[in-house]
Amino acid sequence: MNENIPDLETVSVNKSFGDFRAVKDVSFSVPKGSFFSILGPSGCGKTTLLRMVAGFLEPSNGDILIKGRSVVNEPPNKRPVNMVFQHLALFPMMNIYENIAFGLKRRGESESVIKQKVGEVLERVGLPGVETRQADQLSGGQKQRIAIARCMVLDPDVLLLDEPLGALDLKLREHMKVELKKLQSEFNTTFIYITHDQSEALVMSDQVAVMNEGIFEQVGSSRELYYNPKTAFVAGFVGESNAWSGTVEQVKKDSVKIRTSSGFTLMAQTKGEDIKKGQKVKAFVRPESVRLALKAKEISSMENRVKGVVGNVLFNGANSRVLVQNPIDGAEIDVAIPQTGEFASLAKGQTIHIGWQHDQARCFADKSGAK
C-alpha cells in the first residue's frame, strides 16, 4: 500500500438540513498516525462532520475516503473507524473484559484470540489485570482508557473522539490530555479529535483545523495558529487576546494606524493583508505581548503606550494577569504579569504603564457585517 495515501480525506464535503448548511465544502487530509483536532465553538459543524466520517450521517455531496477508498456508501459498522463519545457508553452490566471483548465477539473471533487481544490492549493502555472489575469501580481517567481500549482492540484505521474529556473534572482533564497523546503515539493510530477547548487541541495535536460556521478558517500546527493566525476569527478564538474594532487612519508598509470609535488609537501589523485607509478592521494583541512598566520612560520606545490604572489583579501563579483600565475609552487591557517579582505587589487602583510594538498586534479586515 502506498504510504503517502492519507488515512482520512474529505473532498468538498457538504451537509445541509433543509435550508441550513451545517458543513460547507470542507476538504482536508490526515496523514497516517497523526493526531488531528477540529476546534471550534458549539454549533460550528464539527460534530456533524465527524458523524459523516463515522457513517451516522450522509453528506449532501462530496466524498470521504479512508486509506484512499471512498466510504460514503458504507454503513458505520463496515467502516474501518471507531468512535469514542463524551459519555464513553461503557456497558454497565458487563465487566471490563466483556466490554472490550464485545466488538471482537460480534466479529466472530475465537475465545483464545479475544483473550489474547484484550490482555494486550489493557497492557498498552496501562491497566493490566482489571478484566474482572465493573465499570463503576474505575476512576474517570480509567474509564476513558477502557473506552479507548474497546475501540483500539478492533484495530481501526481511524479513531474518532467527540469531546471525550468534556465530562471530566478540570484536574483530570489536564492529566488526560497528556495521557491521550501518549496513547495515540503508543498505538500509532490516526486520531480525529473534536473539541471546543483550545487548550486540548493545542497541547495534543499535530495539526488543528479551526472551524467556524461550517468552514475551516485555518489548518495548521498549534504554533502556526497561535503565532500566525490567518483570520480575525482564529486570532480571537485561539489563545487569549485583547481585541479592538476601528477604522484605518493611516497605512504604512506593513502596519496601520487604527482609531476605535471611542477615540483610542493604536498601531498594528497587517502581515500582507490588503488593508486600505478608511477600512473597518479588527486588531488583536496577546496579554503576554504587552509590556508592564512602573515608569513611563521604561516603555518610551514602544509605538503603543497607555498610562492606565490597575482594575484587577488576577492571581494564578505563573499565569497571573492584570487588567489595566485604559483612561481613553474605559476598556480593560489584559496583560500577563512577568514572573520576575517586580510586579508582585501590584494593587487595584495603582497607576501603571503598558506598551507594545506594532508587530505584536495583528490587524484583519472586519468582515463581521459581510454576508
The CATH superfamily of the largest domain appears as P-loop containing nucleotide triphosphate hydrolases
- Radius of gyration, in Å, reads 25 Å
Helix amount: 10-25%
Major sheet: 6 strands, mixed
CATH architectural arrangement of the largest domain: 3-Layer(aba) Sandwich
How many beta-strand segments?
20
- Summed over residues and divided by their number, the pLDDT gives a mean of 91
Shape: globular
CATH C-level class of the largest domain: Alpha Beta
SSE pattern, N- to C-terminal: EEEHEEEHHHEHEHEEHHEEEEEEEEEE
The largest beta-sheet arranges its strands as: 6-7-8-3-9-10
Unreliable residue runs: none
Q: From the helix content, strand content and strand pairing, which structural class follows?
A: alpha+beta
How far apart lie the N and C ends?
Answer: 45 Å
- CATH topology assignment of the largest domain: Rossmann fold
The tally of helices reads: 8
Count of all domains = 2
| Percent strand | 25-35%
